[in-house]
Design a protein that fits this description.
HAD_SF_ppase_IIIC, MDP_1_eu_arc, Rossmann fold, Magnesium-dependent phosphatase-1, alpha/beta
């Protein structure tokens, strides 16, 4: 049974490939669209909110593991009003998702929630991250966004 879903951010939750390049100030151009001072935009993919809401309703913990500067991730999540959906956000300036996922597991242990790798679902748009997750973390369930599934609502059926 899946107790935790960990999401990547760029090209998984929204259409931009690297929010670390966004420059302040960020403005909201619609409920699901953020624009930076240089005119760069990101749009939340369809059904992300519905999926996060349903997973929370079912009692599934939510976390994020993203290769971005932490302050940029926080600003975008807060602008989109998504920040509070996540129990943990690990945003780092390096691409090692297995390190981030290990950090998430350790942090949940500190909160008295011991998660086995097979109780975790990791959703990322790049399959390249999965190998090291399996080697260093264990049998984490992994879904490649846009290859294994084509809509965020499909995540609900995997939980």
């Amino acid at each position: 049974m899946i107790k935790l879903v960990i999401f990547d951010a760029d090209k998984t939750l929204w259409d931009h490939y690297n929010i670390s390049e966004f420059q302040d100030p960020l403005t909201l151009a619609g409920r699901d669209v953020v624009v930076d001072s240089k005119g760069r935009t990101l749009s939340l993919f369809p059904n992300v909110r519905k999926t996060l809401e349903e997973l929370r309703r079912r009692g599934v913990r939510l976390a994020m593991a993203t290769w971005n500067f932490p302050h940029k991730t926080d600003k975008v999540l807060k602008a989109l009003e998504l920040y509070d959906y996540f129990d943990l956000i690990v945003s780092r300036d390096y691409p090692y998702k297995f390190v981030m996922i290990s950090e998430i597991i350790r942090e949940f242990r500190k909160r008295n929630l011991n998660l086995k790798p097979e109780e975790i679902l990791f959703v990322d748009d790049r399959r390249a991250h999965f190998g090291n997750v399996w080697i260093y973390v264990g049998k984490v369930n992994c879904l490649e966004m846009w290859k294994d599934i084509s809509d965020h609502l499909e995540i609900i059926s995997k939980v």
